[in-house]
Design the sequence.
């Protein structure tokens, strides 16, 4: 099956800093999504981005499908950005999740 | 649109008991998914439905687990003869085919 690898596994930032999270995958993709799981466990869909670049406020994402990676950029980080970020790729009708990047933003 | 709703939020049970969880998806979504998540791991796929048809079930899923979506709306996930290893967060999600997945808040199961 498809393999999804995320890096780094953990990241600690000072409030206001920028960061880049990476997702590498082993197969071609027609459905890639980024999620944020907040400290209370709720998973929020950030982006549906099988290719190209999208932006939503301080967050943006880029997927280069031919090179099998996706990047999530967080600019001017805030403490509310803390949590775990997952990328997930479609295999058949379901999404396969990576292990996540745990982000901690310090005030 | 009230989002994906799951009940109960928490369930504590004794080993060997049966438990059932309910999920109400976003009304216009015809796909409904069940995932399981343990601490420090990403969500693990269990099964999914398109309308009332169960299209795929994880081969890791024991026969103690069964899911239904009888009228293509809400779904139930039952675990029979629970074991301590079943303790986890059980997540439900819904989507339209090929579109964004939206998750509920989950049911946290603790098997004592």
Sequence:
């Amino acid at each position: 099956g498809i393999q999804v690898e995320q890096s780094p596994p953990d990241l600690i930032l000072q409030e206001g800093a920028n960061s880049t999270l990476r997702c590498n995958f082993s197969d071609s993709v027609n459905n890639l999504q980024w999620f944020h799981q907040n400290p209370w466990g709720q998973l929020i869909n950030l982006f549906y981005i099988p290719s190209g670049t999208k932006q939503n406020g301080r967050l943006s994402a880029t997927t280069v499908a031919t090179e099998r990676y996706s990047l999530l950029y967080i600019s001017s980080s805030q403490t509310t950005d803390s949590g775990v970020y997952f990328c997930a790729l479609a295999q058949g009708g379901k999404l396969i999740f990576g292990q996540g990047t745990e982000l901690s933003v310090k005030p | 649109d009230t989002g994906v709703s799951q009940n109960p939020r928490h369930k504590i049970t004794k080993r060997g008991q049966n438990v059932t969880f309910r999920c109400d998806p976003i009304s216009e979504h015809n796909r409904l998914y069940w995932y399981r998540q343990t601490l420090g791991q990403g969500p693990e796929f269990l099964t999914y439905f398109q309308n009332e048809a169960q299209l795929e079930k994880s081969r890791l899923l024991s026969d103690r687990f069964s899911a239904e979506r009888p009228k293509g709306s809400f779904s139930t996930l039952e675990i029979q003869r629970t074991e301590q290893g079943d303790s986890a967060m059980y997540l439900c999600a819904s989507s339209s085919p090929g579109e964004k997945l939206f998750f509920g808040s989950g049911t946290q199961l603790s098997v004592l």
